Automatic annotation (TrEMBL):
<dbReference type="GO" id="GO:0045333">
    <property type="term" value="P:cellular respiration"/>
</dbReference>
<dbReference type="InterPro" id="IPR029061">
    <property type="entry name" value="THDP-binding"/>
</dbReference>
<keyword id="KW-0560">Oxidoreductase</keyword>
<protein>
    <submittedName>
        <fullName>2-oxoglutarate ferredoxin oxidoreductase subunit beta</fullName>
    </submittedName>
</protein>
<feature type="domain" description="Thiamine pyrophosphate enzyme TPP-binding">
    <location>
        <begin position="66"/>
        <end position="214"/>
    </location>
</feature>
<dbReference type="GO" id="GO:0030976">
    <property type="term" value="F:thiamine pyrophosphate binding"/>
</dbReference>
<dbReference type="Pfam" id="PF02775">
    <property type="entry name" value="TPP_enzyme_C"/>
</dbReference>
<dbReference type="InterPro" id="IPR051457">
    <property type="entry name" value="2-oxoacid:Fd_oxidoreductase"/>
</dbReference>
<dbReference type="GO" id="GO:0044281">
    <property type="term" value="P:small molecule metabolic process"/>
</dbReference>
<dbReference type="GO" id="GO:0016625">
    <property type="term" value="F:oxidoreductase activity, acting on the aldehyde or oxo group of donors, iron-sulfur protein as acceptor"/>
</dbReference>
<dbReference type="InterPro" id="IPR011766">
    <property type="entry name" value="TPP_enzyme_TPP-bd"/>
</dbReference>
Length: 351
C-alpha cells in the first residue's frame, strides 16, 4: 500500500487528551486518495473521535476490505492494529478476531461496493449476529477504486459521470441494518463533521454492533448533477432527525436547549447520549417507526441522517457464545487444550 510519511514535528502547545496524546498521535501517514474525497473527512472524524475518547491506540483494531474506503485505515490511527482483508470479507475476519479477543475495539471500515455488492452476505450476518464492533460504510454509490461503476447503493434514476442512468433499485444499508437487528444504526455525511464525530464516539461506546452508513462523495466519479451521492445533493436533501451533542460521563454538561428538546439515552456502560431532537416526533428507540420514517422520507428523495436507532441494552455475539474474557493469545496450553478427557466429556454430553 502506498503512503507518504508525515513529519513527526508538531506545535508543542497542541492540546493533549487524558493519556497525554495529541490529535496528531491518532493520525497515520499522508493520504493518497483524491484531494477532496469524502473518505478523508471520515478519517479525520475518526481521528477526532478517538482523540476525544482518550482511546489507547493499542486497544483499537482497524479492519477493512478492498476499495478506496478500505484503504483509509492506513491513514488514521497509525499506532493501532490493522488488517486489510479481501474484498467484501472484512466482517468475517472481524468476527473471528472479536471472538478471539474481546479486549480490543474493532473499527471496521468498508465501502458500498465492499459491503452492499460483493460483501452483502458478510454484512448481513455480521449485523444479525451482533459482532461487537463499529462498522462504517463510506458510501459513495460507486466503485471508486475501479473507476466509478454504479454500486448496489446507487439510486435508480441517478446518472453516472458520463450520463448513463442507473436502472436498478438501490440497497439502503440503514434499512437493512434495522431489519437485521443491528442495535445501533446511524447515518452521517462526510461533509458534516459536527454530526459525524459524536456519532462515531457514540458508536464506539456502544456495547453491541454499531453501524454507521456515511455518505461520502467520490469527487472523481460521482459528484456531478444527476448523482444522489454528491456533496450538493446531500447538502440540499439532508433531513437530520437529531444531533448527539456529547457523551456524558466526565464532561461538564452545559446546555442551552429548550427543556424537552433534549432526550437522554443511557447506554449499558453508563454513558449517556444527549440527543438534541430536530424532528420532534422521531423516536430512535422504536425500530419499526424508524424503518417507516426512513422509507417514507427516502421515497421523497430525502437523506435521513442522525442516530436512527439505538437499543440501550444490547447483547453481542461474545455474550451469546459465552466466550472467555481473556484473549486467547494470553491463555496457556492447559486452558486452550484441556486434554482428551475433557474432549471425551464434551462429546459424551452431545450424544
Ligand atoms: C474479489 C474481488 N473482486 C473484485 C475486485 C475489484 N474491486 C476492487 S475495489 C472494488 C470496488 C470498491 O468499491 P467500494 O467498496 O464502494 O469502495 P470505494 O472505492 O468506492 O471507496 C472492486 C470491484 C477485487 N479487488 N476483488
Ligand atoms: S476515486 Fe473517488 S473514492 Fe477513490 S479516492 Fe478518488 S474520490 Fe475518493
Ligand atoms: Mg464506493
Amino acid at each position: 500500500m502506498t503512503y507518504l510519511v508525515k513529519p513527526k514535528l508538531h506545535h508543542p502547545n497542541l492540546p493533549k487528551n487524558r493519556l497525554g496524546f495529541t490529535r496528531r498521535d491518532y493520525e497515520g501517514p499522508v493520504s493518497t486518495l483524491c484531494a477532496g474525497c469524502g473518505h478523508d473527512s471520515i478519517s479525520a472524524a475518526i481521528v477526532q473521535a478517538c482523540f476525544e475518547l482518550d482511546l489507547p491506540p493499542h486497544k483499537v483494531a482497524k479492519m477493512s476490505g478492498i476499495g478506496c474506503s478500505s484503504k483509509t485505515p492506513t491513514y488514521f490511527l497509525g499506532q493501532s492494529h490493522g488488517f486489510n482483508s479481501v474484498h467484501g470479507r472484512m466482517p468475517s475476519v472481524a468476527t473471528g478476531a472479536s471472538l478471539a479477543n474481546r479486549d480490543l475495539i474493532y473499527l471496521g471500515v468498508s465501502g458500498d461496493g465492499d459491503s452492499a455488492s460483493i460483501g452483502l452476505g458478510q454484512f448481513a450476518h455480521c449485523l444479525r449476529r451482533g459482532v461487537k464492533m463499529v462498522y462504517i460504510v463510506e458510501n459513495n454509490g460507486v466503485y471508486g477504486l475501479t473507476k466509478g461503476q454504479f454500486s448496489a447503493t446507487a439510486d435508480a434514476g441517478s446518472t453516472s459521470k458520463r450520463g448513463v442512468g442507473n436502472k436498478d433499485q438501490p440497497i439502503d444499508l440503514v434499512s437493512m441494518a434495522l431489519l437485521l437487528g443491528a442495535t445501533f444504526v446511524a447515518r452521517g455525511f462526510s461533509g458534516d463533521k459536527k454530526q459525524l464525530v459524536p456519532l462515531i464516539k457514540a458508536a464506539i461506546s456502544h456495547r453491541g454492533v454499531a453501524f454507521i452508513d456515511c455518505i461520502s462523495p467520490c469527487v472523481a466519479f460521482n459528484n456531478h448533477a444527476g448523482s444522489t451521492k454528491s456533496f450538493d445533493y446531500v447538502r440540499e436533501h439532508n433531513d437530520a432527525v437529531n444531533a448527539i451533542d456529547w457523551i456524558e460521563g466526565r464532561d461538564e454538561i452545559v446546555t442551552d436547549y429548550e427543556p424537552g428538546s433534549v432526550e437522554d439515552v443511557t447506554q449499558h456502560d453508563g454513558t449517556v447520549l444527549k440527543l438534541r431532537k430536530i424532528e420532534a416526533d422521531y423516536d430512535p428507540t422504536d425500530r419499526l417507526a424508524a424503518m417507516s420514517y426512513i422509507q417514507t422520507h427516502q421515497a421523497r428523495g430525502e437523506v435521513v441522517t442522525g442516530l436512527l436507532y439505538i437499543d440501550d441494552a444490547p447483547g453481542d455475539l461474545n455474550d451469546r457464545m459465552n466466550t472467555v474474557d481473556t484473549p486467547l493469545n494470553r491463555l496457556g496450553e492447559e486452558d486452550l487444550c484441556p486434554g482428551p478427557n475433557a474432549l471425551a466429556a464434551i462429546n459424551a454430553s452431545l450424544r
